[in-house]
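Input (structure):
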């Protein structure tokens, strides 16, 4: 790579994209890497502030920014992940090939970013993503970088990809609506429709629905019924507070083999319950507090994508939700594009 006066650059090859910024109109390459500079290009280059231009000269010890960015991509790519085929201004972007849950090895990315002269920026860990969504961008800072430094990056990262996208699984959901006020028709059941909409957003099928009074034996039996119907996720709505009539946690405990937590460091959703049961703990039980019905976003919205992607959460996973576990109740909810659930 050699720096020359732009007026003397005609006939030479650009070794990087040249960016043009017009306020309110555009920001992007006006010339791309590899472009052979023509006489009419000189005035354009001067208009974007390029009095001098880097032209490409082969150096066996150095890598061009595009090639280095592709090496970073190679450290990130994994099943269900691809990249934008167009490398713009030395940057490669990671893209989801399907809906799913994004998992990120934050510790190794931190180590790579600490090396200097290279970077990876991403959305946050455990993010529910859509097919085609851009997830991360990566590039090196200088126009060219030593091959030795990129080899060091590979050594730090290792062979395991930095990103993983878990597609949502086809889960079968059973819902048990609890509360004598609903069972006896004193009030309308406004809870179940909310839950159905949330699980269907992740491709789940609701295969059974039972309504129980506050009688604990009825609750236990209703849970058994949805399990017998084939549910591998059991959602119990209501009856999750410390009121003497609220027996849902006990009813869940009687059907589950292992309770992970009753209570979370998340608001809204402190009275949430998570448990497992069935053969090889293949059934997930969740006790949903009343806030799930009337709040826009709660602990349920944080945990549900991870369950739908096949993760088995432990107590430590729940405990880590405290920082980032407070919903700010914004006038316009933009979840998950916010801090709620970011641990």
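Output (sequence):
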């Amino acid at each position: 790579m050699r720096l020359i006066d732009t007026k003397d650059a005609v006939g030479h090859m650009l070794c990087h994209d040249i960016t043009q910024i017009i306020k309110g109109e555009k920001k992007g390459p006006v010339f791309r890497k590899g472009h052979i500079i023509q006489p009419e290009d000189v005035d354009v280059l001067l208009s974007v502030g390029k009095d001098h231009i880097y032209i490409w000269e082969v150096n066996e010890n150095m890598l061009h920014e595009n090639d280095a960015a592709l090496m970073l991509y190679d450290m990130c790519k994994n099943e269900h992940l691809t990249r934008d085929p167009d490398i713009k201004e030395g940057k490669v972007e990671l893209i989801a090939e399907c809906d799913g849950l994004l998992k990120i090895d934050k510790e190794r990315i931190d180590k790579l970013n600490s090396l200097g002269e290279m970077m990876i920026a991403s959305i946050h860990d455990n993010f529910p993503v859509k097919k085609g969504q851009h997830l991360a961008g990566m590039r090196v800072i200088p126009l060219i970088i030593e091959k030795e430094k990129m080899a060091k990056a590979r050594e730090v990262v290792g062979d395991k990809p930095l990103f993983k996208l878990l597609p949502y699984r086809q889960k079968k959901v059973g819902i048990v609506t609890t509360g004598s006020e609903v069972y006896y028709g004193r009030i309308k059941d406004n809870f179940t429709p909310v839950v159905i909409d949330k699980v269907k957003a992740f491709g789940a099928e609701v295969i059974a629905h039972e309504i129980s009074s506050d009688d604990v034996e009825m609750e236990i039996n209703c849970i058994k019924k949805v399990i017998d119907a084939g549910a591998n996720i059991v959602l119990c709505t209501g009856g999750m507070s410390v009121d003497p009539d609220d027996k849902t946690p006990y009813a869940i405990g009687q059907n589950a083999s292992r309770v992970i937590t009753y209570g979370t460091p998340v608001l809204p959703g402190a009275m949430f319950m998570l448990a497992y049961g069935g053969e090889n703990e293949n059934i997930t039980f969740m006790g949903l507090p009343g806030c799930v019905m009337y709040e826009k976003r709660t602990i349920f919205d944080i945990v549900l994508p991870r369950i739908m992607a096949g993760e088995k959460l432990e107590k430590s996973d729940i405990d880590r939700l405290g920082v980032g576990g407070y919903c700010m109740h914004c006038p316009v909810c933009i979840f998950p594009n916010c801090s709620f659930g970011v641990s």
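Notes: The CA atoms of residues 180 and 213 lie 4 Å apart. The two ends are 43 Å apart (CA to CA).
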